[in-house]
Amino acid sequence: MKITGLETFCLAYEMPYPLTYPRGEYQSREAVLIKVHTDDPDIFGWGEAAMWGGPWATTTTVLEQQIQPLIVGHDPRRPEYLWEKIYQETYYHGRKGILLSCLSAVDIALWDILGKTTGQPVWRLLGGFARPLRAYASSGYYRRGYSVSDLADDVAKARTAGYRGYKMKVGNIAAAVHAGVLEATPLRVSMEGDLARVRAAREALGGELDLMCDATTSLDARTAMAYADEFERIGVRWFEEPTQPENVAGCAELARRTRIPIAGFETETNKFNFAGMMDAGAIQMVQPDVIQVGGITEARKIAAYAQMRHLGFSSKNYSTAVSLAACLNLLYALPNADYFECDMDPSPWRDEFLRSPLFTFDGGMVEPFDRSGLGLDIDEAALSAWRVSQ
Question: Which Gene Ontology BP terms does the record give (predicted)?
Answer without folding.
Answer: carbohydrate catabolic process
